[in-house]
Amino acid sequence: MYKYKCIVSYDGHNYMGFQIQEELPTIELEINRALIKLVGKEVKIYPSGRTDRGVHARGQVIHFELENDIPPKGITAGLNAFLPQDIHIESTEYADADFHARFSAKSKEYRYYINIGNYDPLTINYAPFIKNLNIEAMKDAIKLFEGKHDFKGFASSSIDKRKDTVKEIYHTEINELNGYLEFVWIGSGFLKYQIRRMMGLLIEIGRGKEKKEMITYVLEKKDPKISHRSLDGCGLYLMKVNY
Amino acid sequence: MYKYKCIVSYDGHNYMGFQIQEELPTIELEINRALIKLVGKEVKIYPSGRTDRGVHARGQVIHFELENDIPPKGITAGLNAFLPQDIHIESTEYADADFHARFSAKSKEYRYYINIGNYDPLTINYAPFIKNLNIEAMKDAIKLFEGKHDFKGFASSSIDKRKDTVKEIYHTEINELNGYLEFVWIGSGFLKYQIRRMMGLLIEIGRGKEKKEMITYVLEKKDPKISHRSLDGCGLYLMKVNY
Q1: Residue A242's pLDDT band (boundaries 50, 70, 90)?
Q2: Least CB-CB distance to A121: which of B86, B121, B126?
Q3: Residue A228 pLDDT > 80
Q4: N or C: which end of chain A has fewer CB within 10 A?
Q5: How confident is residue A225, by pLDDT bands cut at 50, 70 and 90?
Q6: What's the number of domains chain A is made of?
Q7: pTM for this model (two decimals)
């Protein structure tokens, strides 16, 4: 068997998320279909993680195994020829036999974009519109997420109780671009809904409706039912997976 | 009756064009529905022109008449409350009794964007990807479109024979942005498919497959059947209508 690792970018707006859901439009379904066209049979693909509905990717990683040796450049070109134009294989390389897109990942980088300028119907599916944010308050508060914590309080409330919810956030930053805010999150891994719920609380702090101490409180309480508005998936981008 | 003029922006990617086509998703259908919710009855709207499937707008203009006087700011806020988030009323004002969004228009500005950098699945529905273009050749050639011409050769081949196909292009420019080319077209008006077909020939010139003299030839022949690749509507933006 030959093992391959691909870097994949996609516009999540047109899809119901990564994970296959029968015939609904999903990233996995489209890659599966393209692989069947390329190699003539069904091939199971493994992503670094399943992005939610509407979430975009510039550096998603998948792996899969083929019985026949196809040169990596042929995989990239072949898959791109069959994929819809809003899903794109950036590159393909051979992977070691023990490589696993999910379990071998050492860290991941996500970014979240918010439009703080004028309402724009042309970017609203790529960056939510939120006005009157205290940027300095958010820049101060986001640092409380850094380090090793039990993030259960920021996870989906339906999270499996046996799941290890201790993760480390290595780096955060908030950059002011031209009318947009860019939130950078680099960590060992992120739980389902974690970034969207951390963003939700951060925005409440930016709007002056919560104090930054609430972050510490939620981390200590470890109760996903302490509700915070979860920001929409449309502003979230999986940028890079490090191995 | 009270006459109103609205400036409308929209992401055309999710719509089958401006003009209503029964229950298919169109810009007109969505504005009609929002107006019915706002005023309680059907109101006919008139656009400056009907944008095609996938074409975007940052400055489309519509007019309509209401029996009751609603303040313009109330129309803007009311319609935006009922419209999908990818269609947005930028502003509303009272219009004179003889104002007509289409017939009163003095000139229109369109822009077309092409990605000349790296393939990007996240902008592919907003700017087609075309590599290896000779920008100087296109900057030179586009000037041949300026002035008053019979543009029948660049119109849709199904164009009504009685239609006046003489139009004037006042200004063109090609700007190099960060990895993108911006083509600016300002003219008295444009025929169905005209900009997409002019762009198609311009790109053939940029790729070295046609000479700029072909522009003069098509203008002189006035035959829409002389075929040129029409560029996709997804890169086209109606920016402004001047009255």
Answers
A1: very high
A2: B86
A3: no
A4: N
A5: confident
A6: 2
A7: 0.93
DSSP string, chain A: -EEEEEEEEE-GGGSS-SS--TTS--HHHHHHHHHHHHHSS----EESS-PPTT-EEEEEEEEEEESS---HHHHHHHHHHHS-TTEEEEEEEE--TT--TTTT--EEEEEEEEE-SS--TTTTTTS-B--S--HHHHHHHGGGG-EEEE-GGGS-TT--TTS--EEEEEEEEEEE-SSEEEEEEEES---TTHHHHHHHHHHHHHTTSS-THHHHHHHHH--TTS--PPPPGGGEEEEEEE-
Tell me, what's the ipTM? 0.90
**Domain termination site, one of B94, B128, B154:** B94
Cβ-Cβ contacts under 8 Å, B86 against chain A: 121-122, 124-125
Whether residue A234 lies inside any domain: the answer is yes
Q: In which domain, by residue range, is B49 found?
A: 2-94
Q: Which residues of A touch B (CB under 8 A)?
A: 9-11, 56, 58, 85-88, 119-122, 124-126
For residue A199, give the CATH number of its domain: 3.30.70.660
State the pLDDT at residue B161: 78
Is the domain of A61 the same as that of A132? no
How much of chain B exceeds pLDDT 90, in percent? 93
Question: In CATH, what number is assigned to the domain containing residue A30?
Answer: 3.30.70.580
Active-site residue A52, yes or no? yes
Query: Which of residues A70, A94, A118 is at a domain's end?
Result: A94
Across the interface, whether the CB atoms of A86 and B125 are under 8 A apart is answered yes
